[in-house]
Amino acid sequence: MVGIKSYGVYLPYYRLNRPDISKAWGGFQVPGEKTVANFDEDTLTMAVEACRDCLNGFDRNAVDAVFLSSTTYPYAEKQSSSLVAAVLDLNRTARTIDVAGTLRSGTNAVRLALNAVKSKDASNVLIAASDLRLGLPSGGKELEFGDGAASLLISDTDVVASIDDVYSVNNEMYDVYRLAGERFVRSWEDRFVREAGYGTVVPRAVSEALEAFGRKPEDFAAAVIYAPNPGYLGGVAKKCGFDPKKQAIDPLWGMTGNLGSSHAMVLLAGALEQSKPGDRILWVAYGDGCDVVSLTVTDEIEKIAGKRSVQRMLESKSVTTYQKYLRWRELIAVEPPMRPRTEPASAPALYRDRKCGLALYGSKCTKCGTVQYPVQRICMECRSKDEFEYYAFADKKGKIVTFSHDNLAVSPDPPTTLAAVDFEEGGRIMMDVTDRNPSDIKVGMPLEMTFRKFRQTEGVQVYWWKSRPIR
Amino acid sequence: MESIKDKVAIVGMGCTKFGENWDKSFDDMVVDAVYEAYEDAGIDSDDVQAVWIGSYWSNLPAPSQPLATTLKLDYKPITRLENMCATASDAFRNAAYAVASGACDIALAIGAEKLKDSGYSGLPTDDIAMGLVSTAPNTFRSRNFTAPGHFAMMATSYFNRYGLDPDEGRTMLAKIMAKNHRNGTMSPKAHFRREITVEQVLKAPMIAWPLGLLDCCGVSDGAAAAVLVRKDMAKNFRPDPVYIKALQIAVGPSAGYMNPKNDWTSVEETFRAGQAAYAEAGVTNPREEITMAEVHDCFSITEAIIYEDLLFSQRGRCKEDIDAGTFEIDGSLPVNMDGGLKCFGHPIGATGLRMIYELYKQIQGKAGPRQLKNPGLGLAHNLGGTPGGATIAVSIVGP
Q1: With an 8 Å Cβ cutoff, are A340 and B118 in contact?
Q2: Do A340 and B258 touch (CB under 8 A)?
């Protein structure tokens, strides 16, 4: 049986109230809030967080492949999935594929994974969908789009939901699009997008799929259908034969906004969390066509009953302001601080630091057991030389020994909170504390690790780790 | 191991005005400091046999060779060195060791730094030197490094450990800054020469919580120089030479950044360098035997913790001495008589020799309105790096 063995979700800590945007521009009052990635996050860091949630408790060495999906990769040329594989410390032989170009890329990746597992090319394929899309300020897309990521582990053992059938159609039209090199998503007139696009393609594909699967709408406990907003969803769910109030609900729009290529996957994770063994779920993604997937929840779902990935991410949040959002996305030019210029990153130095920097490995002395970061060839306690094993810090928890809130450090969200972080199982690392309210920071506060963007210079985006209050 | 005590004498010193020296280049300041020292010692450049010049950021990558051109020190050995913010103290130490070894009889130590050509506030950063070109920081650097950000962490931890609420703690620190500014008004060569009140310190804009703008020393340009000779030659140059009693440097293994045993309420390097210097100088009770000190008040909290690490105050109890006025210019152990880094600013490579310049002038009775009555042993404490990983120089000089 091939299906979903685990899932993970990442939603950024910050929310933006839509009325805050409307107030700035004097436009329509649109209710609800949207998730907003912090200034130190991008598609890749969010994908990493979702994958870490997905792989929690699983053997990383068993992952045979990682397929990412997004419309907003940080690099046009340079694979994000291989960078993610390095961060997650996956096997060197893990296959990496970036699926791109469409909001349907998440389910596209699932199809690829499914075929890989069915053909015995792989046993465990890690998938992540992540997006950070931009609408022009004061437009409808800015109100609509949120940021987030989700991850699935596709496997042929111990699945929480089997993937029984898949049906796909492609569809060429200019409804939602963005030229390579442009930052902001465009779309054609809403009537055309809804009537000729989404409202036609989805019902037709679902009806064909159900016929091909030999199923009826009433066979499904839930229909998880991607829609850019609730206005689109209700009519289409009904057209497909589902009860919009019971079977086809999208609670995300009011809380996160449209999460792009990760939207359908986050919805599915939410549906899995509320499912019971035997439930059938119809999962529908739209974008340049439509993918329809039929799943059946297994008894294994009870083993992950306490996971609450979606709920946890929805509940742990803080509201930011539209002004900060504009600065974080570099949508307004601000006067740069009078501080030294940032030196370009060095490719050879980054290359050497893959394990310690990207995967956050320190060393543990094999003579005296002292844990230290970064890797110390000569042990800081017993002075033995080159007697160490690599020691992973990424999933360890720490606490604040001391901290400061630095207004001089250059940051799009001053002050920079800097802390000495001591880990529960040993070791200390100096780290920024992100996703925090400065007035909540106290000595002794527990922290967890999060993968983040650091500076970007001359075409190189440097990533490393920060700490954050536990979510 | 032999001691440096009473082997080397200072017979001449020079120091420029510290400040935003817009009209002086690095070379101009070096010439001014060195020629003041020559004149003070009664020598000229022909007498100099070897030179150590300390600078951290200036004239990189090659300050040594051009110095021969600037000073016309034809065909003499000249070495540039750095040891972070304790650079000038180390130039002084190297020159003293050369004299003590007999390799030369007259050596020149120079510390100089030009920071204000940069166009920004705070210190420069050098991402390559600091290992920040990689994803991972090297041993002792976190991301987004600034000096106030790091020293502020010492204040957070000190307040927390000794149960001072932020207002109490910040008031204790503000008193140190007000003291240094009172002293600075009497220092013609200082950058800042106005009094500040405790209230002004507390209300200043926040730079790195819990440190405000007036908890931080300024950034300035400056240079200082010393002429060193063998002890037995000293009286040939002047009747009142000043003798070196101890020169110690302790460079730490970045325990604050890596080792959970370190809690940021003390700088172990200061304690160790202090212990070694006291032993070398034969000091057994520093609080009684040291008569004055110039210490590295780059930030208010730094000076507070120095009191404890140098055993001027008991651990966790410097507040009592601060409140009692112990370290005021008329107190029992005056600290930063010239106003310290707080008033002079901190031209990285020059500061250590500026400290020794003040001790030298005090011992000779030439410190003007800030002259102490009976100066004896004087201590200079020069901190390089940060509390997480420091280079500490402790020098003791005396009549």
Answers
A1: yes
A2: no
